[in-house]
Write a structure and sequence with these properties.
two-stranded parallel ribbon; about 5% strand
């Protein structure tokens, strides 16, 4: 029997379609088998053993008091505030002078109106200057404190390395005194009730901070004195 060309084409198309359907199915089965076989022999890596915790302490308040850069930054900040206050005070003095002149003039006269308008302008200028100064110095203070805190935090992270400490807790070494009733309440609210003084790194951090600050050309305030123990001290780390 002679197979017609139409029948041959139809059969060929059917075989091609079957191949397209079967091919991916076989491939998926083979890929799944490979994954299954490879997964059976693989084991998850064991997590590293945790480092035994060793605790140290630091008095951040004492660090800020002892860091020479904090003192220098505070002095610079205070100087800028005083300069702006003097500028605003000049405006206030002008307002005072205008008010004194206004008191000498007849109410409703042309000169009276001119001085009155001048006082109004100065008052607006004074209020605007005060509000601008408050925003400016609030932002400046926040940026200054953030920079200083990051520097101190970085040194705190470096200092305990050579002493094998893995955790540093914040404490307060302020004494409880009878002349300050609030000192007892502050002590009661402390998270750490007792810590071995030998594990306190406050002095080390202050010494290292001042050493690097001075080495970088930082200006040391006249009232600040560097402890003798910091003369040759160098912090670990980069």
């Amino acid at each position: 029997m002679v197979v017609s060309s139409r029948t041959f084409v139809a059969v060929s198309i059917g075989l091609i379609g079957l191949g397209l359907l079967v091919g991916p199915s076989l491939g998926q089965q083979q890929d799944g088998a490979v994954r299954k076989s490879s997964g059976q022999g693989a084991r998850p890596a064991s997590p590293p053993a945790p480092t035994p915790p060793t605790f140290g302490t630091i008095d951040m308040g004492e660090v800020f008091k002892g860091y020479d850069k904090v003192k220098a930054s505070a002095a610079e900040f205070k100087g800028a505030v005083m300069k702006r206050q003097n500028e605003l005070m000049q405006v206030m003095n002008q307002m005072k002078a205008e008010s004194e002149e206004l008191a000498k003039l007849r109410v409703g006269s042309e000169d009276f109106k001119k001085h009155e308008a001048k006082i109004t302008d100065l008052k607006v200028k004074s209020e605007a200057g005060r509000e601008t100064a408050e925003r400016e110095f609030a932002l400046r203070e926040a940026e200054m404190m953030a920079t200083l805190y990051k520097e101190i935090q970085a040194m705190v992270a470096r200092t305990p390395t050579h002493r094998g400490m893995t955790y540093i807790l914040r404490v307060s070494n302020d004494p409880v005194v009878g002349t300050d009733p609030n000192s007892a309440m502050r002590a009661i609210e402390r998270s750490v009730v007792y810590a071995d003084p030998k594990n306190d790194i406050t002095k080390d951090v202050v010494n290292y901070l001042n050493y690097e600050y001075k080495a970088a050309g930082g200006v040391v305030p006249a009232a600040a004195t560097t402890p003798a123990s910091a003369a040759g001290a160098r912090p670990n780390g980069n």
